[in-house]
Amino acid sequence: MCHVIVTCRSMLWTLLSIVVAFAELIAFMSADWLIGKAKPSSSEEVDNRTGGAQEPYRPTLGIYGRCTRISHMQFSRRDTLCGPYAENFSEIASGFWQATAIFLAMGIMILCTVAFVSVFTMCVQSIMKKSIFNVCGLLQGIAGLFLILGLILYPAGWGCQKAISYCGPYASAYKLGDCSLGWAFYTAIGGTVLTFICAVFSAQAEIATSSDKVQEEIEEGKNLICLL
């Protein structure tokens, strides 16, 4: 018989697992990993809201995508265009970024799988006498290692020609040049830290769902068990 067991700790672990997976996925897909050096606007470009000259635009560069401005001379304005610069994996700007993409993709796939499974831990707490929480915690730890490897290798690619075109001639491995780090990089780091927190917290979720109080309510014949 299926017993639906919901505890404060197990629910918090499930929510954190889902948040971490989405955060890493969004960061990976974003083009805001590097913020390039400012492109000065021409004197003819006017901000429609203020009537003054527009602020210099800073293009952004991701692992496989980028955002930049395209001029429309006939209208004396510029549009921001975002999209992948690489049509296939081999066109990613650096071998280090290719390795980063592989490690991050593997970590994110594991995190998404765990996030999906975590939803069902309310009904199924073990498979083949193995605690789902412990298995998911182990997988989250492995995913965290993949994410760390990807984030360590990523700065090694700052010396590639694509990064130099955005960050200036002084950009090199682990040196930003005229660029700065975007929100996607910091999100990926924060998600990695939360991944290990989730891996540790999975043990608490397992303890909460197998506590004496839960066992007592199961023996009383309850199918829906909610504990704070």
UniProtKB/TrEMBL annotation:
Membrane spanning residue stretches: 12-35, 96-120, 132-154, 183-203
Record-linked Gene3D superfamilies: 1.20.140.150
Membrane topology reported for the UniProt record: Multi-pass membrane protein
Domain of life, source organism: Eukaryota
A GO biological process held by the record: single fertilization
Keyword annotations of the record: Fertilization, Membrane, Transmembrane, Transmembrane helix
InterPro entries with a match to the protein in the record: LHFPL (IPR019372)
Homology family: Belongs to the LHFP family.
Name of this protein: LHPL2 protein
Phylogenetic placement of the source organism: Eukaryota, Metazoa, Chordata, Craniata, Vertebrata
Encoding gene (name): Lhfpl2
